[in-house]
Amino acid sequence: MKGQILQMLLIALLATLAGCGSSQHEATERYVLIANNTKVPYWQAAIVGFNRAGRSMNVKTEVAGPENYDPKVQHEELQKLIQQKPTGILISAGDSKLIQPDINAAIEQGIPVITIDSDVQDSKRLFFIGTDNYRVGTMGGRIVAEQLKGKGNVVFYTMPAQPNLYDRLHGYQDTFAAYPALKTTRVIDTKGNASIAFDMTKEVLQNGADKVDAFVCLESTSCAEVADVLEREHVTNKVVIAMDSAPRTLVGIQKGIITATIGQKPFTMGFFGLKMLDDIHHHNPGTLDRKWSEHFFSPIPSFVDTGATLIDESNVHVFLTALQSETEK
Fold it and tell me: Would the pTM of this model clear 0.70, i.e. be above it?
């Protein structure tokens, strides 16, 4: 008899706990991640993190944004999304000036917006989750200076409209200021198109391979193309610093063509970003439309640094093993 009573109590307790867990989220909750270049490995990793967090909380998740770098399309999709009034928006800015008014409009309508990867600092977004991009630039700058012994010509690949890439370039250039013989000879706008990086690298080499000592890529797609051109043209002894841990970049490090890459954590940005949106939805700070970064008793942070890791020949095998393990899940 006692055993039956204990069993009944246990069943009742489990039912109560299950009820508490399921009542935390409503069936109408819908969170959206908006990015650029959604098909590249970097954003695929962020999407995996975002969706995994959604499944763990049993909430609806959606992904929006252009498959290729197109800030105008991202802007248009964000405007349409705001009209649908989702529960929360996680966004990486393709062009911060273009989408700033959209983010402000969403906040004014009570839709929480958190930026990841590429920030819109002057907007009303709640806070930013991502990498300390200026620090990434100084990290890469020190590697270039060390590899070139403080002297040489450097070519950069970037997309000037993205604030995160601007911060990285700024970090590099501030580091180079301590080395007068280290020169930035060209800054190439890839427009988010890997083929432009390929073509421009060929052009740089045609103008004289000996005129460039280092190639630095401030986003994830360019350096695999740079490495491809260098390998095809049998150009060696160049310093190549990449961003992120795309498979082709890691293979380039294994081959000895890419010197190193600075790996971010897009999975963490997507995963933690959704967790934070959900927390804000269920524990509303009272009003979204205020400068929380200037509020001394703010319940939310201004910036969450997800970290960055240097990957070179000494540890690339660790990341390739982790990538294979994650792909097999």
Answer: yes
